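Subject: Interface between my chains keeps coming out wrong

I've been trying for a while to get a sensible model of this assembly. When I model each chain on its own everything looks fine, but I need the whole thing in one frame so I can look at the contacts. Pasting all components below, labels as-is. Any help appreciated, I'm running out of ideas.
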Amino acid sequence: MNGPGLIPYLILGAVLFGTGVAGVLSQRSALMVLMSIEVMMNGALVNLVAFWRFVAPGNYDAQVFFIIIVTIMAIEMAAGLELMLLMYRQRGSANIDAASELKR
Amino acid sequence: MSGIIEWLIFGMLALIAVITAAGMLVTMSMYRAGLALMASFVALAGIFILLDADLLAMIQIMMNVGGMLIMILVMVMLMMDPGGQMMWDMKRSMHIRGLGAFSMTMPRGHHEATTDAPMPMDDHMHMPHGEQEATEEGADTPGMQHGGMDLRDGQQAKGAMKMSGMNAQQHYQMLVSMAMTTAQLPWALVVGAATAVALILLVVVTPWHLAGTAPSGDAAAIVGNLLLGRYMVGFEGAAFLIVAGIAGAVLLARREGSPPSYAQSLQAPTPAAQIAQPTAAKPMYTCPMHSEVQQDHPGKCPICGMDLVPQPPQRMGDMGGEQ
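Reply #2:
Try treating it as a single job with all components included. I did that and got this:
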């Protein structure tokens, strides 16, 4: 019996992505939204690596892409933490519903 | 035989990854949320090893787990209740039901304003007395999660309200302010599930062109050559972005103003206003009917002739504390 093929990994990526979406839409604190975005990106990364392995294993460009994405994830986390810190200092709360200045 | 083992390992790792990612969303403790996300990352690193991407697994562990460690550090340093202990105590003392240390959601609906006689507040309550607005607690505690309460039992809710010494409206406001998820939680779950199902359908239906070969070659060497060769621009661009991100983050986190005023601004707005008050120490005298009349000595109102009464100076901090 063979190990899992392409589809199970893609399903895992899809489930992770869906979990991240649910988290982004439902969490109240900006920090939790950030962490849910990380979960979504991880789902996409699982898909990326699965495609590399099963569709184009000779082409290592996918791994370079992975490295760049993970780097961007780290930067985004830092920038998001920063914004949250600022938001808290300005208005006394990290509740993203409170950031509604652009609303009419 | 190895196929079955691979399936088993895949199943275990996939379950860990998904369950910890979902668990991150329902826990009331920020520290545990960070740990859960870290566990999810490690499980995914295991998945990458299953996929013969050892280099990527190592990169995942080094960057993401390290990043999560830093995030947990930030949480523990800056937040007032990173472990969720305060929320747990509050939840227990108010006898609110829920799934143990989890499930802090928005209270459902409005409670009618029952007029129970207010009783002294429970010792475990850390929220300020008679807090009207839905405010977050404490100074400089970004991203602080308060656990919301899942009031499944109206009877216990009334009991909780009695103990907390607030009326129903205040109680509701407090629960709203302490909720961990927004009121759109059911919709969020539906949208998340729909997204996952749509993606799974897409994946299952598409005829993928599988290569059927195994990866060969030293991944690290090949990727290194690619980064320094064909993808040099992207590599350098990422490096530049990192530097810009770090510089920007440091710039944004810079303390405003001189150290004493910053320390004061860390406390609740009221002390800042109290410190500002001595500089406006003279009470102004104003007319009870015409508040635009301001004199620094007692007398009579020029408009209506009433005696001027002393007016306490404006508390500047109030406007800053509004939400």
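Reply #3:
Confirming on my end. Chain A touches chain B through 80 residues (CB under 8 Å).
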